[in-house]
Design brief:
Number of strands: 7
Order of helices and strands: EEEHEEEE
Number of helices: 1
Structural class: mainly beta
Radius of gyration: 13 Å
Distance between the termini: 22 Å
CATH architecture: 2-Layer Sandwich
CATH topology: YaeB-like fold
Length: 95
C-alpha cells in the first residue's frame, strides 16, 4: 500500500488489496473502486475516523475503510450524486 499524505486533508491512495463490501448492495461498485485504487486515486481523509477515506469517481461518492492490520479495503458506503435525492445512500453499514 502506498499512502502519501501532504499537508492538506487529501491523500493519494494506491494499492492492490481486494475491496470487500460491507453491505451486499455495494457489489455493483467493487470493480470501479478496485480499479481506481490500483491506478491511484485522490482521497479525502476522515479526520474523526482514522483509516477512513472519501473518494469520488465520476458522479459517485464512496466511503472506504483501510484497517491498519488487515490487507483489504472495506467499501462502507456509496452514493450517486447525480441521481441521489437528498441524502439517499446506495450502500451503507455501520462500522
Amino acid at each position: 500500500m502506498k499512502v502519501m499524505t501532504p499537508t492538506t486533508r487529501y491523500t493519494w491512495l494506491k494499492m492492490d488489496q481486494p475491496v470487500i463490501p460491507v453491505n451486499p448492495s455495494a457489489w455493483d461498485h467493487l470493480s470501479e473502486v478496485e480499479s481506481a485504487l490500483q491506478k491511484g486515486v485522490k482521497a479525502t481523509t476522515d479526520e474523526r475516523h482514522p483509516g477512513f477515506y472519501e473518494i469520488e469517481l465520476g458522479d459517485t461518492w464512496y466511503y472506504i475503510h483501510i484497517p491498519s492490520r488487515l490487507r483489504a479495503v472495506y467499501l462502507v458506503a456509496a452514493q450517486n450524486r447525480a441521481t441521489a435525492k437528498g441524502s439517499e445512500i446506495l450502500a451503507q453499514t455501520a462500522c
